[in-house]
Structures are given as structure tokens and as C-alpha cells.
């Protein structure tokens, strides 16, 4: 199975849309660098070669990598709508005052 796609940290729109659809359908957020590409390639191969996968037990291990989404904000914007990158020096104040230092 060839899951590297265009190369390290480079994604097709199909891969990014897949990551979005999995998150919407399951609540599981795959990163676009490793787990997203691997799951996309696996499911694509399962659909294209069903006999090869018939009767198999499959364990897919999601190892994290959510920070890989940070650099994809611009590419994902057309899929998810109103995303914005929040820089480290920005913060979202809590409405209840919990965590207020002063």
C-alpha cells in the first residue's frame, strides 16, 4: 500500500477532505501527515480491492499527531469553513473567570 501520497506533509484535497469527514462522522481527528494519509490509503485500497481484505481483522493504530493540522489551516479552510489559526501570543479569555491570574 502506498500511503505517502504527494510526499511528507503534502496533501491532496481528497486526503484533507477525508480527514474532515472522519472527524465529522466519528469525532476522531486524524492528522494530515501520518494517520490521515495511512487511513485514507487503507480505506481506498479496501474499496478498490475488496477481495484482498475479505475476512481480515484490521487494527488501525492512531498515534496522535494533531499538531500536523496547524500548518494545514489554510488548506482545510475550504472544507471546514470558519477556521482561524490562533497564535501563541493570543488567548481566549474564559467567561467564568476561572484561571484568572489577577
UniProtKB/TrEMBL annotation:
Cofactor section: pyridoxal 5'-phosphate
Signal as UniProt keyword: no
GO molecular function: D-cysteine desulfhydrase activity
Segments crossing the lipid bilayer: none
InterPro entries: ACCD_DCysDesulf (IPR027278), TrpB-like_PALP_sf (IPR036052)
Keywords: Pyridoxal phosphate
Domain of life of the source: Eukaryota
Record-stated family: Belongs to the ACC deaminase/D-cysteine desulfhydrase family.
Protein name: Tryptophan synthase beta chain-like PALP domain-containing protein
Organism: Trifolium subterraneum
Taxonomic path: Eukaryota, Viridiplantae, Streptophyta, Embryophyta, Tracheophyta
